[in-house]
Amino acid sequence: MRTHSIEELKEKRRKGTIETEVSFLLDGKEEVVPKKIVNGEMEVIDIDKPIGEMMTSETSRKELVQKVVLDVELGREEVPVLYNPIYETLTDPNFPKEFEAKWAQTGSVIFFEHLEGEEVKFGSLQAESGPIARLQGYAAGFEYTKEMQMFNQMFNFEIMNKAFGEAHNALLNHLHLGPIIQHNYKAANKTAPVYVKPDGNAGTSGDAHYMLSLRATLRKALKDTRTAKRPGTILLANSADKEDIQDALGSMTLQATPYGATSGITDIIYYDGWETDVARKSYAYEGVPQGKAFLIRPKRGFKELVKQGLQIQSTIGDLTRLVEAQIVGDFWRGVFAAVEENVQLVELPGQQ
């Protein structure tokens, strides 16, 4: 069983060497800058010239934007995306703005004994139901002012770049996990708490053993998804419930009675949301509430649609406002999430 949380993913990235190339636009031309992480340390570009001076030639501007791109990537490393085990990623620059989920199809074929002269039975394609996918554009930007140049406030420059990357990945987590967390589930997609007494018999919330009840609830949720023919294998939960959930899924012995480990859940994702302050205004993305979890059948009804990944562009600033340079990043993507056909909301038992 694999577990995924922001801290665990960051720890994994601290091992070994990772090398990729990151693209950006400079004067409308696509360029790339190498990104290298060695044992968790990422190589960045140090600049010893004032920002304004860096905007005076194409070579210097390119070096400046390369630094911005790597600083943004450093921020993205601080907020890893968590939804990859759930979603299948489809990338196509020719995606239309709005379309039905023809790509969320599965084939259904069955072989029959063939009798002479009888027509062959043909298979069919079945599509997941769910909302129409819409591709949307997202953008953010920041400005480097003359004041930053005069006082050579490179530390503020780097802080903004890093925050840009953090905000990008935080939004990706929200776009993909939010539809699961915020959905209004009908009764057939809910599993209520199951209470078990210390002796193993059925109980109530007042006399139940918490760990046995949590174990029974998770097993009931697995059974519910299998009965509904949408077997869940990924659990999305709050990190406050992490130790209890992992203990409940393992083997245990209580009052000389052995209880075997629970199988069927391959991945557990812990997501608590994200929040930040911008211009004295708070922004927050909702995480999984403590005491709830979501058992998910992955991939089949969950598609990440990427028309354009994050692209950083640099432009000359605005003299009337003493802005030396502007950096803008934008990306275009959509999400298809057939929640009702693939997710079970699990109400965890309360701890006495």
UniProtKB/TrEMBL annotation:
Name of a matching Pfam family: Phage_capsid_4
Origin: domain of life: Bacteria
Protein's UniProt name: Aspartate ammonia-lyase
